[in-house]
Write a structure and sequence with these properties.
The complex is a heterodimer of chains A (333) and B (234). Chain A has helices spanning 16-31, 36-41, 303-310, 316-327, and strands at residues 2-3, 46-50, 53-59, 63-70, 73-80, 90-95, 100-111, 116-124, 130-141, 146-154, 161-171, 176-183, 190-199, 204-213, 218-227, 233-242, 247-256, 262-271, 276-285, 291-299. Chain A is mainly beta. By secondary structure, chain B is an alpha/beta fold. Chain B is built from 8 helices and 10 strands. Classes of the chains: A mainly beta (333), B alpha/beta (234). Chain A binds chain B through residues 239, 268, 302-305, 307-316, 319, 322-323, 325-331, and chain B through 54, 56-57, 77-79, 82-83, 87-88, 90, 93-100, 103, 107-108, 135, 152, 156.
């Protein structure tokens, strides 16, 4: 394992300004729930990006990371060699400390056949007031490979971020891709998630999005799962809570395009105050041996859940918060 | 053991929903530390009375009042009644996505120790190591969920626990296990209002009441209540 020198970039320790930025972005990463200690240890594969500066890259055997600056962001390519099984996750830390600006991340992930890896991505914009973050990712999960991709965002208290997160995912035969996107602390601002997954025979894809909107936050989630190969399976799961005047729109599509495919869409949205939630599921089946289902529950907090917690002594607001936090991935934090 | 002091005093409570009388002039008292069985057939109003005592939405009485430890709680919201030491175990408990059993059991008493958490799960014959991290969600069977509800009430150490049909839908936990749990709660100083339609469940009660058509028709010794209830069922 070694710290990789990026062409044209001095390592953070050689540049006091960058070193300070590196530390600042790591602190923001930590505030957003990221394990900064793991990054500092140098024992995990990692990329640390602030605005369009690649502040640090660490590789481990079997993982190649190339990152280069763009005028408005960074282009990154991560290749996991076939058969590689990593014990520790690969950490991706993207962020901006500034209040305004644009960050565009063009990412390409190649997960070699038979490999098994986990990526932990944290995107932090703690001071954002008028900031745009664009993630344009291509993910290729090879045959019989497995990728767990967990992405957590923190946009700060002002709601001044517009995030566009797009990903095109292909899962090879027998491959498995599990993705979790969460933005449950601080404000959202404007968020567009647009993921499409194409799944080959016996492959599995599981897309989960969890977002908590407040104020005048605006959330749009678009997830499409195309089950193209025989016995492919897919789940698109959305958990959203909106309060105040926040808006959420969820468009999920599941296609059963081959015999034996199994798809399911599961959407739960809790609405409080003057918030509005919308869910539009689309089911397309092109094989008489495919099976695709959807379920959606949108509205107020379940009265029985609420009263059960109130019977334990929680006031209504606290009980609602417990229910929402549980739905959005647990009470921790 | 019951102290003789009245802990819960339901005085002349009536409740109408959608034009139908659900509770009619209900009078019921539960003594501190006693096990009080409430017998009645399905639809007699037992659960509705429990919801009214707890203060559930849509179950606020039209007339009458409810006293707890001498205080009129008729206008208190649920959580304030709970903070006075009153709680309810639902017949069909709610499920919570993403909420671990350990956290669920802690909500009612944040100061609970790890040993007490384990004891609460042991009391309902669940392995704490296996169940504490599990979510209280759809992955639990109905019986498991029911046992966790009883454990949550036990862990809370309330002054009065209303147990609504604790014996229904519990798969592994036997009838005698539930009786043991109720007696254990009573020994710890918790009064229990034990709602049941099973005559034999009332055998462990200090006193019992019989409910029929939305009103209490008898309160007395368990043997007498069981006899009346048997006659009522025909």
């Amino acid at each position: 394992m070694k710290a990789q020198q990026i062409p044209g970039i001095t390592a953070p320790r050689g540049n006091p300004t960058w070193a300070r930025e590196y530390e600042t972005i790591l602190r923001a990463y930590e505030q957003a729930g990221g394990p900064a200690a793991a990054l500092r240890s140098g024992r995990v594969a990692a990329v640390v990006v602030s605005a369009n500066r690649v502040l640090g890259v660490v590789t481990v055997p079997g993982v190649t990371i190339n990152a280069k600056p763009l005028p408005d962001g960074v282009q990154a390519q991560i290749v996991v060699a076939p058969g590689v099984r990593l014990e520790r996750p690969v950490h991706l830390c993207f962020g901006m400390i500034a209040e305004t600006g644009v960050q565009r991340i063009v990412a390409d992930y190649e997960i070699g056949a038979g490999s098994q890896v986990e990526f932990l991505a944290h995107c932090t914009f703690p001071n954002a007031r008028d900031l745009r973050h664009i993630m344009d990712a291509t993910v290729r999960v090879g045959a019989d490979a497995q990728l767990r991709y967990t992405e957590a965002h923190y946009h700060g208290p002002h709601g001044g971020v517009f995030v566009e997160a797009r990903a095109g995912v292909t899962v090879g035969a027998g491959g498995r891709y599990f993705s979790t996107f969460s933005l449950v602390h601080g404000r959202v601002g404007r968020l567009l998630i647009d993921y499409t997954a194409d799944v080959d025979a016996s492959g599995v894809v599981d897309l989960t999005s969890m977002v908590y909107g407040a104020g005048d936050d605006d959330i749009e989630v678009r997830e499409t799962v195309r089950l193209n190969g025989e016995k492919a399976r897919g789940l698109a799961k959305t958990r959203i809570a909106v309060r105040d005047r926040a808006r959420s729109r969820v468009f999920t599509t599941a296609e059963g395009n081959a015999p034996g495919t199994r798809g399911h869409m599961d959407c739960a949205e809790i609405v409080r105050g003057d918030a509005v939630a919308e869910n539009v599921p689309t089911v397309i089946v092109r094989s008489d041996e495919a099976h695709v289902t959807h379920e959606a529950a949108i509205g107020s907090v379940n009265r029985k859940e609420l009263e059960t917690l109130m019977a334990r002594g929680l006031d209504e607001d606290t009980a609602v918060d417990v229910i929402i936090r549980g739905m959005l991935g647990g009470l921790s934090g | 053991m019951p102290s003789g002091d009245i802990l819960l005093d339901v005085q002349g409570v009536s409740l109408t929903r959608e034009g139908r009388a659900i509770l009619s002039n209900v009078n019921l008292s539960v003594l501190a530390g006693e096990i009080h069985a409430l017998l009645g057939v399905n639809g007699s109003g037992k659960s509705s009375l429990a919801y009214a005592i707890m203060g559930c939405e849509d179950y606020l009485p039209d007339t009458g009042r409810i006293l707890f430890a001498g205080r009129d709680i008729s206008d208190l919201p649920m959580h304030e009644r709970a903070r006075l030491g009153l709680t309810l175990a639902w017949q069909e408990p709610a499920r919570f996505e993403g909420l671990p059993v350990g956290d669920y059991l802690t909500l009612g008493r944040p100061t609970i120790s790890r040993e007490e958490l384990w004891e609460a799960l042991h009391a309902v014959a669940l392995d704490p190591a296996a169940y504490l991290p599990r979510p209280v969600d759809r992955t639990l069977s109905g019986g498991e969920r029911k046992r966790i509800e009883l454990a949550a009430v036990y862990a809370m150490r309330p002054r009065l626990a209303i147990l609504d049909e604790p014996d229904s839908g519990v798969d592994v936990l036997s009838f005698s296990d539930i009786q043991t749990l109720v007696q254990r709660m009573a020994r710890s100083g918790c009064a229990v209002l034990l709602i049941t339609h099973r005559n034999d469940m009332a055998a462990i009660a200090d006193r019992a009441s019989v409910m029929n058509a939305g009103t209490i028709i008898l309160t007395g010794a368990p043997e007498e209540a069981r006899r009346v209830y048997t006659e009522l069922r025909g």
